[in-house]
Amino acid sequence: MPSPADHPLLRRALPRDADGLVCAIDPATAGWTWTTFHVYRLEPGQQVTRAADDEERLVLLLEGYASVRAGSQVFAPVGSRISVFDGPPAEVVIVEPGLDISVVAQTAALVGVAAAPGGPVQRTAHIRASEILVEDRGSGNTARRIHHLLPPGGSQAGRLISFEAFTPGGNWCSYPPHKHDTENPPVEAALEELYYYRFAKPQGFAFTRVYTQDRSLDETMTPMDGDLVLVPRGYHPVGVPAGYDCWFLNIMAGPNREWHFTIDQDHEWLMNWSPAAPKAAER
What's domain 16-276's architecture? Predict the structure, then answer.
């Protein structure tokens, strides 16, 4: 398997280490400014800790159940499913800057920890599966289901944004191609983004392209189970081969916590969903 350093945007899953770490990215290794992300595959009773600092954190119980402590607050149990393909949204805990955290697995668990510099909103809360908006987006070969784990706008958080998407085999997601790399509100917002992939069949894979209009960046990749793709700029569609249902997690962060994007004009005729529609249902 290629080394994670072999491609600037595609980072292959890491062998699980003694702490359970299977995925790791930070500004230094990504070559960007805002976003840090780690994934741990924990055994029951295993713990992940983070010291207090000036970053906002998002703890995501992607699979299994755990207790999460943020400063003096304890949230337990946190979790909603055994597999990302079980159906309900992941449960998350948003943690304001200045609080240390610990996550203790109550079952075998897949835990994501995202971080970004603190923003104007500082909030600590357990967001349960029942509080998360579920959206059916697109139609036909672009049909997919979106879970708005930590949607943009309002007082949800200071900097971080997160979604998870389920795309049936043979369909397209992040489609038509769009970008959010220029700070030009309300037309577009500058947001770094990462995609963390899982497949219902472990041999599954996807095709993803990251490209700019002038093609100064134009990379096509095939992420597999547990891999991560970085989107520092540019358009970024995802195609899923027939037979391999795909789940991915999006983490975004940037100077402002808004999600405004520009669609590639060559493919704008394929737009069949409204980005404004989910906002009325945000909690």
Answer: Sandwich (2.60)
